[in-house]
Amino acid sequence: MLEIKDLHKRFGDTLALDGVSLSAAPGEVVGFVGANGAGKTTTMRIAMGVLAADSGQIVYDGAPLGVEQRRRFGYMPSERGLYPKMKTGEQVAYFGELHGMSKTEARRSAGELLEQLNLTDRAGDFVQDLSLGNQQRVQLAVSLVHDPEVLILDEPFSGLDPIAVDVMGAALRDRAAAGAPVIFSSHQLDLIERLCDSVSIIGNGKIIAAGGVEELKAKEVKQLRVSVETDEDLTGRLPGTVTRDGDDYLVEDSPDDQEVLRIAAAAGRITRFAYDQPTIAEIFREAVTR
Known about the structure:
With 290 residues, the protein is an alpha/beta fold. Helices cover 35% and strands 30% of the residues. The chain has 2 domains: 2-213, Rossmann fold, CATH 3.40.50.300; 220-289, no CATH class.
């Protein structure tokens, strides 16, 4: 379990983090969402020891996180940290050696990752000659080469085409399936919804919403959608605030959804009766404007 507890950080007169807390359990993929400048990168840099917090704590497996534990983490910064004039395969293996792997182990792991990320045919190319999307894949390979216990990734999907997104998403889910806690930030909220088990939304240095993806969506449900085959207009009969969406009735603030069901069933054949769940994008927009 990786726990980020009550982080505070100030840069001059700017309060960057104001009590940020989030956690990732073994095998859990956590999406870290926020507008530019909300505090995502600062939080991740503190977790990795790149920055020091003014107060707060990073805890791993119940103990304060130290240098040795961080060596076993995989970190992908938002800015690429690659050597442009180094060949792709050599570079990934080199980072493995920096993490203490033998040359043989590092080359084996690098080869497996390049195959998984569809980069095998680019192993002999210089990084500077790769497309930005392929450089992003190399950056991910560098963060994975030493088989990390925890992954912290800052905007790993930035600039990727849909195929590359699928490849990298599968790589992250594989690591989570092997037991690694994974935290990644992204502005692509459809990816957060598709890949993550839970979400933490940050705004102005504070966590403003957090929870499981399905839990958050269920919590924000606002309306019941009813489709019924009838020539009768049920707008004035159904309890609650009722509007029409094509042939559907949208019911909000109803005191009794079973009464809605009874009235609709008496009027005709029901073809749909379900609560509309918002997307993570909709939850994010509402959370940051509250």
